Amino acid sequence: MGSIIVAKRVSKSFGKKEVLSNINLTVKEGEIYGLIGPSGSGKTTLVKILVGMDSDFQGEVEVLGAAMPNMNVLSKIGYMAQSDALYPELTGEENLQFFASLYKLKKEERKQRIAYAADLVKLTPHLSKKVMAYSGGMKRRLSLAIALIHNPQILVLDEPTVGIDPELRLSIWHELSRLKNEGKTIVVTTHVMDEAEKCDRLAMVRDGKIITGGSPSELKNQYAVNHLEEVFVKAGGKNI
Amino acid sequence: MRTIAVVRRIFQQMLRDKRTLALMFVAPLLILTLFHFLFTSNTAENPKLGVANADDALVKQLKDKDITVITYERVGNAKKTIVDDQLDGFMQIKGEGIQLTFENSDPSKTKALQIKIQQVIAAQSAKKQASIMKEWIQHLQKTLNAPKIKMEQVSSPKMHIAYVYGNKDTSFFDVLSPVLVGFFVFFFVFLISGIALLRERTTGTLERLMATPIRRSDIVFGYLLGYGLFAVIQTVIVVFFAVKVLDIMLVGSLWHVIIINLLLALVALSLGILLSAFANSEFQMMQFIPIVIIPQVFFAGILPVEGMANWLQMIAKAMPMYYGGDALKSVMYKGVGLGDIRMDLFVLFGFALLFITLNVFALKKYRKI
Ligand SMILES: Nc1ncnc2c1ncn2[C@@H]1O[C@H](COP(=O)(O)OP(=O)(O)O)[C@@H](O)[C@H]1O
Ligand SMILES: [Mg+2]
């Protein structure tokens, strides 16, 4: 299995405040990689650097072997932002169409992808509504559908299940493992520990540093605990 | 291709937003119409002049000059009489001298009245002079016993007036309107495009776009084309309305007017989206209006720039509306062709090019490509 995303010695500051310090991580092909940490720990900042939205940082990031930002690589990444960046005056369908038209998709394929993505997040009956009339959860789901619209090889999802009801959350995770089995690589951030269990490998983030990493079972064995929360407390405690 | 996607999205958003459409297409027409009636309605009343101790001939001549004359037997306080009787001025003949008092709440009205009175008085004294002369000569002839010569009455020469630009019916509005047409196009395009890109920044969609394979230049050109097409429609509507409905004087070609306005719109568009990079909210975008937009009006040719202090002229030359205003006035009022305003057009095009390039750079804070 090759490395899809490699970050070396990544540091980032906003003004004087260092938000990420010396982050090293490798995401392998076909895995679900989880970034777990409390809010404000730097997950969003890190993820933005990984997808090339922010090039103002120290260190190196390579995705599919290329330095970011790279147009070719960008067209293979599906990104879901933590805050929904949607066009409220447009309908759900128009939002999907707009983002789809930024990728090279044939007309027929575009139609299919829109139908698939909308169905996956259960938005098909609401596609002709304007986004400003959507609830918070519906907006999250539309953002996820947009991330999937071009059938990307890499998915980067920033807190994808916040504000989504448990039933749909389960079906989304189900779909993520199906996509993984298709060979897609997925990076997910979350602050919910039971979601962390579903990842193949984890990196625990606190105050801009990766305090520990590994598969959920490895981590629990290593720290001799039954729950990932305890790993977090123990690993974090060592560092403080 | 991605540029077209941005253009299509802008169209969808604009067509949804009826208020903004109305602002862009209807508001300029309303303001232009208002200006038209403000400057061309000739309902100005005749000035009212109180007169004391004047002879009938003088009063008659004043009346011939469209002055409403009210004669007074005696006056105590001229100023008080003016205020009490709502006069525009008061004239008292005191022996050889004339005492004029003006109400002067509207200096231009005062000037007009004063000129009329001076003309009447000058004509009167010329006549008096002539009759004294005649008497004197007759007296001379009598004493010298010379043969009588007939004195010819000098009639004032008939004046024929010609104008290089405009005609005797030209009003200030005819000079003002080319500038107004250009200014409205400039102002509304600036505001709408600027706020649109700003919204894209504040809602996070601009940043989100950076996670897609769109180029910075795709975004800038998408905005230029998308709002540019609306600007074209707006320009055509405003120009046609001004010329065909308000009957604004248009000596040159309508198409030249449209070309100039389109260039102005392009400058406004690129300036608007550029300045939106320096604003964090719609309110901050509005703050650019007094700083960037209002000064343009002063230097657009409503006030003569040639007469300004040197440093003011320098400022004028840094303003796109200075060139736009000059070009529009030249075509609409003076009727020159494109060749004579090519400098204006070049400079406007230069402004647009500069702002567009700066725009692509301004987006660099998001991403390098
Ligand atoms: N644009 C910004 N300017 C200044 N500070 C920021 C900015 N974005 C994030 N931060 C700071 O960086 C830290 C990490 O934020 P973030 O990456 O959003 O954390 P998380 O996604 O883990 O909740 C926070 O302390 C936050 O205040
Ligand atoms: Mg976050």
TrEMBL record, chain A:
Record Pfam families: ABC_tran
Lineage: superkingdom: Bacteria
Listed SUPFAM superfamilies: P-loop containing nucleoside triphosphate hydrolases
Residues annotated as domain ABC transporter: 5-232
Keywords recorded for this protein, A-Z: ATP-binding, Nucleotide-binding
Example of a GO MF term: ATP hydrolysis activity
Protein name listed in UniProt: ABC transporter domain-containing protein
Species of provenance: Saccharococcus caldoxylosilyticus
Lineage, opening ranks: Bacteria, Bacillati, Bacillota, Bacilli, Bacillales
Automatic annotation (TrEMBL), chain B:
Residue intervals of the ABC-2 type transporter transmembrane domain: 18-360
Membrane topology (UniProt): Multi-pass membrane protein
Predominant localisation class: membrane
Recorded GO MF terms: ABC-type transporter activity
Stretches that traverse the bilayer: 21-39, 175-198, 219-242, 254-279, 291-312, 345-363
Classification via PANTHER family: MEMBRANE COMPONENT OF ABC TRANSPORTER YHHJ-RELATED, TRANSPORT PERMEASE PROTEIN
Keywords: Cell membrane, Membrane, Transmembrane, Transmembrane helix
Location(s) in or outside the cell: Cell membrane
Native source species: Parageobacillus caldoxylosilyticus NBRC 107762
Protein name: Putative ABC transporter permease protein
Superkingdom classification of source: Bacteria
Gene Ontology cellular component annotations, sorted alphabetically: plasma membrane
